[in-house]
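## retry 2 of 3
previous attempt timed out at serialization; input unchanged, resubmitting
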Amino acid sequence: MRNAGTATVEHTVHARLVLTGHCSSGLRATLHYRAADPFAVRMAFPAEYSLDEPRGPEPEAEVVWVFARQLLASGLDLPAGLGDVHVRPSRGPYTMVELRAPEGVALLRFEAGDLRRFLSASYHCVPEGTEGRHLDADRALAELLG
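## retry succeeded, writing output
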């Protein structure tokens, strides 16, 4: 969906959290893209999939991973990623996303078509190669410094 204020894309997709070679659990993930942060995508999961310990009586917020839009695009066709996020094609119409944190590793299987549709919508919002024209360096620095 596009937002009139700042252009955004948000898609909710289904994924499988791979627990073992023969066991997985279904979950939903929400993919976010904002023209104001043109190089990044956000992948959000329900709080119950966090490995963190609860910190109080309030419900935990969703778990959000932020990584490069180009990493997601590259990983649809060839293994991509260094560090905490890896994306690679899998058998059939699937793409695997591996998320690494100090608490553990999560391996997720997505329908590649869902990820391609999300990326296509993000490219409609900010075409590939034009990200620099949409980047507000002062705002990005302020967000980085908290």
